UniProtKB/TrEMBL annotation, chain A:
UniProt keyword terms in alphabetical order: Membrane, Transmembrane, Transmembrane helix
Source organism (scientific name): Marinirhabdus gelatinilytica
UniProt domain DUF2157: residue ranges: 11-151
Statement: the UniProt record of this protein carries the keyword 4Fe-4S: no
Name this protein carries in UniProt: Putative membrane protein
Residue ranges of the TM segments: 41-62, 74-93, 105-123, 129-147, 154-170, 176-192, 204-221, 227-245, 257-279, 291-310, 317-336, 342-362, 369-386, 392-414
Keyword Protein biosynthesis attached: no
From TrEMBL, chain B:
Pfam families the record matches: GDYXXLXY
Domain of life: Bacteria
Name of the protein described by the UniProt record: Putative membrane-anchored protein
Species of the source: Marinirhabdus gelatinilytica
Length: 424, 192
């Protein structure tokens, strides 16, 4: 138990705020809580050990021991796999602890990669790294469900994103198999949400999954700025609205990766679109059918989530962030013929989003959201200094005004909080 | 989850994890045992794979053939390149098509790069030869040196081919396996 809490308890007993019995009960509570900790530590070190051992084995075998015969090397290719499978069988059928499952899952994950890489090496099998990663992904997927190893799931996500990048960015082809691999972990994710809705681990998934979708999206697109920005804004709109679903909205903000990525992504994408020269790249003839289909699908998915929120009466009070993808969609159509006006309207949209964030922060009495809104406005003003010829004095005055706004908004919020506390 | 399902699932997973590398091995062994060997004139260069180690990339002289297929060929489309052996066992491309032909001739599948004047440019697939990490770069240097000293009679990959599948068995420099050629060079340098 934390010695600080112990000291506090002693002080509370000395001042007769709590009875010695309550102190004892609190100590007992923390003592039972701590019994779980060594197991967790064992799992963390076990996973770290497995990751290092697995990577080490891959590197040792990558040396290519050409003094051994092909048969000897082929046998060695299967040794880590056999060891990993035996450990996994032992863990599974003896119903060992979560720490065992995590450790053996990670070891088996790397053993699969080792065996395929060694066979490719021994027989000089042609093929770039993407086909190798795909075989690894397919063979590793069952570990997620059989051993229920979260560390393996996270490694699997890293692997599928690497595969997607290798195919999408390296070979310029759409990595559909990465999408299938991502869908394969959705049941595991949904189960985790059901069983551990407020767990830190579940929170990690809420970040890792939208991030991997974001990275993979770029691998599917090939039309550049012409539609890429709109596609990304639609994805961020989808994320933001998913983050507003009752389950995610009830989470602590730091666990709501969808909401934060959605909000930040929308602002960053719109800031890029606020530069007038970006709109000159919006060329309808450059837009591929593939990118159009992806954009429409994402927009429809975001609208569907909005529709769900509307049916559940969760759209009030009005939040501009939830609709910004639709507004930007309209601006894009307009931008093909009137790029200058579309660029000005995007600036107004960002300003409105910044003001809305200030409003939300003030309504919820949250300094973080309030200052986020002010930062959005600051970023907008900073961006405008790059592509407009505003005189230095006006720029200076604008910055002073925003700085004053920061002070004023935080001060009024502070006053408001004091007032609320006084009323309580 | 039911224990029976877990057991079946685990067994399937284990089998799949053995089957994939096992099938890779069997396919390659079958070609090595039953396929016809061809020599492909080549030059090595030395890159590295983060997971599978160092290898030499082989740049083959054979990169063109008479085109009898249907144009156009898109970048990196698969094309069927038909082969014959010269009197020294070196492969020669006789014709290429984007569909398999009804002939007894052996073929390899290569990536097409465009048709010009009734001939197609292509790249053969078996361009990687994995080597022990300290020998890949010296292999490239040794071949370069031999070529500049006019000592290079031949440098070729020995490839076994069966029904379009190709396995690169070894790379030879002046009819010596490249591994031994590099080791001999390293030995000579050590004795100097």
């Amino acid at each position: 138990m934390n010695s600080k809490i112990e000291k506090e308890l002693d002080e509370l007993v000395a001042h007769k705020i709590v009875t010695p019995q309550v102190r004892q009960d609190i100590k007992q509570y923390y003592a039972t809580k701590e019994t779980d900790r060594p197991n967790r530590l064992f799992a963390i070190f076990g996973v770290l050990g497995s990751v290092l051992t697995g990577l080490g084995i891959i590197l040792i075998l990558a040396h290519n021991w050409d003094d051994f015969s092909r048969t000897t090397r082929t046998i060695w290719a299967f040794v880590p796999l056999a060891v990993g499978q035996l450990l996994a069988a032992f863990t599974l059928f003896k119903n060992k602890s979560a720490a065992w499952k995590e450790t053996t899952g990670v070891f088996l994950f790397f053993a699969i990669g080792t065996s395929i890489s060694l066979v490719s090496q021994i027989y000089n099998i042609p093929g770039a790294v993407d086909s190798y990663l795909l075989s690894w992904l397919v063979l590793a997927a069952p570990i997620i469900y059989l051993l229920k190893s979260h560390a393996t799931t996270l490694l699997y996500v890293v692997l599928l994103v690497s595969y997607g990048c290798a195919v999408g960015y390296g070979d310029n082809e759409s990595p559909y198999w990465a999408l299938v691999a991502l869908l394969a972990i959705v049941p595991h994710y949904l189960k985790l949400i059901k069983e551990l809705p407020a767990g830190n681990l579940t929170g990690i998934y809420h970040w890792i999954l939208p991030l991997s979708v974001l990275v993979l999206l770029g691998a599917f697109l090939n039309s550049g700025f012409s539609i890429g920005l709109l596609t990304h804004v639609c994805l961020f709109g989808l994320f933001y609205n998913l983050g507003k679903l009752p389950y995610f909205n009830a989470q602590k903000l730091r666990r709501n990766g969808y909401l934060i990525i959605g909000s930040l992504g929308t602002v960053v994408s719109l800031l890029i679109a606020s530069f007038s020269y970006v709109w000159e790249e919006f060329l309808p003839e450059k837009i591929s059918t593939n990118d159009t289909v992806i954009t429409i699908s994402l927009a429809m998915a975001a609208v569907a989530v909005l529709g769900y929120l509307f049916r559940k009466h969760k759209l009030l009070p009005f939040n501009l962030f939830q609709f910004s993808f639709l507004i930007f969609g309209g601006l894009c159509f307009f931008g093909f013929s009137q790029p200058e006006i579309a660029s000005v309207l995007t600036n107004i949209l960002i300003l409105a989003l910044g003001l809305f964030a200030v409003l939300i922060g003030s309504r919820k009495e949250k300094f973080s959201i309030l200052n986020y809104g002010l930062l959005v406005i600051t970023a907008l003003v900073t961006c405008r200094f790059f592509d407009t010829e505003i005189p230095f004095v006006v720029r200076g005055l604008l910055f002073v005004a925003i700085g004053a706004g920061f002070f004023a908004a935080n001060y009024f919020m502070y006053k408001k909080q004091l007032k609320t506390k006084a009323h309580e | 989850m039911n224990k029976l399902f877990i057991s079946i699932g685990f067994a399937v997973m284990v089998l799949a994890q053995w089957f994939v590398p096992g099938k890779m091995i069997l396919d390659q062994e079958r070609v090595l045992a039953e396929g016809t060997s061809y020599k492909f004139r080549t030059r090595p260069i030395d890159p590295s794979d983060p997971l599978r180690g160092k290898y030499i990339t082989l740049s083959y002289e054979m990169n063109k053939a008479k085109w009898i297929g249907e144009a156009p060929v898109n970048w990196k489309d698969n094309v069927y390149v038909y082969l014959k052996k010269d009197k020294n066992g070196f492969a020669q491309a006789t014709q290429a098509s984007n569909k398999p032909l009804k002939t007894d001739q052996e073929y390899v599948v290569a990536q097409g790069y465009g048709v010009y004047n009734d001939s197609i440019n292509f790249q053969l697939s078996f361009t990687r030869f994995y080597m022990e990490e300290s020998k890949a770069y010296p292999a490239e240097l040794a071949v370069q040196q031999a070529a500049s000293d006019s000592l290079l009679d031949n440098c070729y990959g020995l490839v076994f081919i069966k029904n379009g599948s190709a396995v690169l068995e070894n790379v030879f420099v002046n009819d010596t396996p490249i591994k031994e050629y590099v080791e001999e060079g390293q030995q000579k340098n050590a004795n100097l």
